[in-house]
Amino acid sequence: MPTASTAESVTLLRAAGALQPEQDLRNPDLLASRILPWWPPLSAMVKVPGLRTLIGRTIRKKAAAGMWYEVARTKYMDDVLSDSIAAGAGQVVLLGAGFDSRAHRMREEIGSASVFEVDRPHMSVRKQKRVRGLPKADVRYLSANLEEDDLGEVLQQGGFDPAVRTVVLWSGVTPYLRAEGVETTLRWFARLAPGSSLAFDYCWQEILDGTAVIPEAQAVLRQVAARGEPWRWGVRRGRVDELLAAHRLHLVEDLEAAAAQRRYLTRSDGSVQGPIWFFGGFAHARVPEQ
Fold this sequence. Notes:
Helices cover 44% and strands 14% of the residues.
């Protein structure tokens, strides 16, 4: 699972995206900058009003593809959450929550649904310290390693009811897991109440095994490996349906990143903002109704 450094890097991308001057293209996570620490300096600068514009421009210049990917990913996960709650989900689970602010910024959409955030112990402790200044939210923080612990047992001990329809967001986690960690999590999800939804993002397996050589992807792989957090798992392009079918799950949508760019980053005049990491996508799975 991602470490604190990765969680902070992703949060910085969200914070920069929230500074995008065009409202329709802006990352909706307007709380991201408030979760970031005052060190290192780059994270701190995005918290200072007089420096925000400069930092936003710098990140849009040096990490544009990652920042716009994060805008699309955030909006996609937000949509699944909102739609699932509207359809009757009574529980929200954020797996590998990192510095996710949804419980605080989407309180109206979440309403009375119970929120559970699952992460490694040290990440959970950091998160709880960081959100003290945010709008209040009723969150149950639970500690688990998705590759080692029994997720179902951890959640049930924390008050989670597998018989209640649930929406699970699994953002920015699967590439860092081994295959067994992904499979175990999907098996857990498949046992939840009918109608439960799971949204997750993934990279293409082809960029991991070298059968597709994409310079932008190779650069990202080098970056994460240099941090000691290599990407380990992916899905072959166009095969998400097979992955889910093996667990008797229904594929609601497999949205490749390039298609997500058109959905979420298109201006009113028809022009599309970019660049974006395009070597993966976003999936929405559902436990079939009985």
